[in-house]
Amino acid sequence: MQSRLTLMDLPEFHVLAANWAEDIYGTFPRTTEGGLEHFTTGDDKLSLNRNHQQLWADTVFMTNLFLAKMARMNNHEEWGEEATYQLLLHIKYLLDNKTMLFSHGWDFDKRDNFGNTFWCRGNSWMAYGIPLYLEIMQGKLPDAVSRYLIEVYQNQIQALFSLQSTDHLWHTVLDDSESYVESSGSAGIIAGTFLGLHMGILPKEFTGNAQQSIRSLMGKVDDRGIVTDVSAGTPISANRETYKHIRKLPMVYGQALTICAFAEYLNFSHSEKHV
């Protein structure tokens, strides 16, 4: 998951990464207002499905962070401006201003949010993706943009911690306590929280709850190192019940997000010891 974020650090892959960034910037299909349409793999995992006129929270993490890092590494102003625009556009259409949570997606044809379901993993893409974006683009964003993104991030984290399950993780439908507790989305939220604490953009008052969450996440790793209770690939749906019935399977992104959560926790803990 997101191997592209490290691929460009290897000299032998720099040309390939640059070609990908140029494709994202210049040729990827766009929605109304110039948003990046989200593609998903087909049932055979060899084909691609185009989600016409749709914005998904997933794109912020899976595509936009790559474009931002390539912009920073190559001092490519146009790529950087595009990455910032994409993040702001996704926030514009996915953020629910009543709850400060994010919908899974937006459809420009229907002009709706597919039932406005607050999906755990979708919110983790934003909760981790926004501070990662700020870290990547540090010193390159206008102060007003940085301030806005920090406010959005802080509001979301505040909302998320008000919806924790009894074991300090999160339900797959965040505001439905009858939906199962889901590990990959919980891991992404934990990773984003510890990164925000490490960066100093999140109040220290979240530290205690975040530490309880990381302990609960450790309990989701079995004796073989497999992260349990991870929801399988999840198509967007206007029916909240659909999300509650997605199978739980070992998934690569479940492993990856859990590793990220542990890494961000260790980075934060190490920095606290040296204050």
From TrEMBL:
SUPFAM superfamilies recorded: Six-hairpin glycosidases
Record has Phosphoprotein as a keyword: no
Hydrolase keyword on record: yes
Pfam families with a match to the protein in the record: Glyco_hydro_88 (PF07470)
Keywords: Hydrolase
Signal sequence region: none
GO molecular function annotation: hydrolase activity
InterPro entries hit by this protein: 6-hairpin_glycosidase_sf (IPR008928), 6hp_glycosidase-like_sf (IPR012341), Glyco_hydro_88 (IPR010905), PolySaccharide_Degr_Enz (IPR052043)
Protein's name in the database: Glycoside hydrolase family 88 protein
Organism of this sequence: Lacticaseibacillus paracasei (Lactobacillus paracasei)
Lineage of producing organism: Bacteria, Bacillati, Bacillota, Bacilli, Lactobacillales
